[in-house]
Model the fold of this input.
Amino acid sequence: MEQNFEQAALALRAVLKERPQVGVILGSGLGGLADRLEAPVSLPYGQVPGMKASTAPGHAGRFVAGYLGGKYVLCMQGRLHFYEGHAMEDIVFPVRLMKCLGVETLIVTNACGAVNRDFAPGDLCLITDHINLLGTNPMIGPNRDEFGPRFFDMSEAYSPALRELALACGRELGIGLRQGVYLGYTGPSYETPAEIRAFRVLGADLVGMSTVPEVIAAHHCGLKTMAIGLVTNMAAGVTEKKLDEQEVIDTAAARALTLQALVEAVIERL
Ligand code: HPA
Done:
């Protein structure tokens, strides 16, 4: 069925105070940024026609809009993942919806594992590029020409200008930033040590279960996009330690405020 963005946009416009200029996708344990918005309004995904609900832990599953850094910002507090069983077109529905609402810049956050041995849990990493190992692509199917062309270049999907801006903000705030390639894998099982060794050979610095579909859809429809990964753990087999969801949640919680400060500074300087 062809997705209807008009109905969804109407539902959101009914609560929004003005056109949002910036969209932010808040990943696992990173939803706190939405609490910093001034004059907040929210709408659960379940009340947006055409939008699927998020079932992932640590994901509130709602849009929250408000003022931050002098801009009107629309946040997704929680996202949809492929491992939840959602169709790709449903995962990227909110990204396209943001475009329909007038968003120009999208900031994507995620919790991820470090494939690069030089990285450490707690590191913030500016994503420079990705490797799509989800086995599919959100743009498969009839092309919606109103969003973008059938075939499109992905060389600068992670905006070099926004990356420069984030690095400058990091320097100003004394927040060190790594830079690296994110490899998107389906989950929900974490990767095996052999997979992580293979991903390192492929050129991955980070591994996670999100971000790739959203960034493809965002770039397709011309959103300027930036993505930051919060390293919550070393990927499987990098150390002796087994992977544990609690470590992911705890590390995300410990570094959430730093990531928020960075995102807020970037928004202020847009
Ligand atoms: N692998 C995949 N997804 C993740 C990880 C990981 O190690 N950590 C947080 N999200």
About this structure: Helices lie at 5-13, 88-91, 93-101, 160-173, 193-202, 212-220, 245-269. The mean pLDDT is 95.
